[in-house]
Amino acid sequence: MLLTPEIIFRHVESITPEFLRSRGIRALVLDVDNTLTGDGSQQLDESVQAWLDTMRAAGISLTIVSNNTAKRVRPFAGRVGLAFVPLACKPLPVGLFVARHRLGVPRSAMAMVGDQIFTDRMAAGLYGIQCLYVLPRTPHDKNKVVRLKRRLEKPFVRRYYEKGGVTHE
Length: 169
Description:
This protein is of the alpha/beta class.
């Protein structure tokens, strides 16, 4: 189903170059809030920086695709040294289309990494790429709409686990 996660990771640091190679993935499109950093934060955990460095060293191309404005994303992207697509309009796949052309890879070689089913997972499904769903980094979302979506996501996450899915550490 388009909304049920294909795979769930505890956090981005659980995604390894070996896992990506096994799926033919050479490029990752990354969400920011609650994926790479906490909701609304400009801070980057050392473990996430180490993960970004590991991905780069393994030859994985990385870019940020966010529904946030350039004002929010630019400072963060600059700090971590990544290109970005702001105002991506997820769940519409517009931002993914832009990112794929910048990355220069076919759809089969890229995946979306994000923490929301109704934006990241749905955009990836509509665009025809894999979604590596991660659990939110922080337990509390500031945005009321995101809090509502979190409640609506629960049946889809539950379905993943009922079908035998596990959280990859």
